[in-house]
Amino acid sequence: MAEVNAPYARWLRRMVSVMLAALPAIWCIPAWSETASWIDPQQLEAAKKEGSVIVYSSINEEEALPIWKAFEQETGLKVDYVRGSDVQLVARILVEARAGKQAWDLMQTPSVHKLPQQLLALIDLREARHALPEARDPNHRWQGVTAIYQTPAYNSKLVTEAELPQNHEDFLKLSKWAGRVAINDTESEWLMSLLTFYGEDKGRALIQSMAATLKPVMVNGHLALARAVAAGEYALALSN
């Protein structure tokens, strides 16, 4: 969240607190009550005086818009949703920062940790106490609100179930798939998960061996990757 001046930062902290505190509750509440328990009345009243809020996010519209519609209904705040890939949004925010024209209020993407700390406002969310410690920035600059599951995906017309590897080491036996495998070109979370699970030395060796064996093609964006696999351009995505 961009810090331009003290009044702006104070408003942004109010707005972010209201919005992010809402997200965990939105997925859990089956029916909307007249007054949602997660709403802080003072913060909501202050946020309403500012009007609409601009959200930058890499989440697909069909998944995100129902959530923000529900948020609008609960709070009366208008949400302007701007969707783009992680790379596009980070680049856009950096360009805006250099021009001194921060157009966004909230960023919802796995890449928020890649932004310079000076562009992020301090946030201390009441609902954060319910989240895992790993879902919170130790410097209080961002807060995780969703869990993302990433797994290999395959085209069932090109790959049979019997051919599927049972673990990541099995990919090293599938040199016949070389050049027919793809992965998102900014898959830092996938790389980190392998290094965490296997340890840095074994994980690094495995990643290098997989790259040499499969010669994966880099694709920009998870949505583009999913579509390419579904269309048969690639037989399998290492992670999506």
Structural description of this entry:
The protein has seven helices and seven strands; from the N terminus they run ααβαβαβββααβαβ. By secondary structure, it is an alpha/beta fold. The protein folds into two domains: 6-135, D-Maltodextrin-Binding Protein, domain 2 (3-Layer(aba) Sandwich), CATH 3.40.190; 153-237, 3-Layer(aba) Sandwich (D-Maltodextrin-Binding Protein, domain 2). α1 crosses α2 and α5 crosses α6 (200-214). The protein is elongated.
Features:
single chain; 240 residues; D-Maltodextrin-Binding Protein, domain 2; 2 domains; elongated
> What number of structural domains do the residues give?
2
Oligomer: single chain
User: Judging by the overall fold, what is the CATH architecture of the largest domain?
Assistant: 3-Layer(aba) Sandwich
State the separation between the terminal residues, measured CA to CA: 27 Å
Largest sheet: 4 strands, mixed
Helix content: 25-40%
| Helix/strand class | alpha/beta
Strand order of the largest sheet: 4-7-5-6
Which stretches of 5+ consecutive residues score pLDDT under 50? 1-33
Mean pLDDT: 82
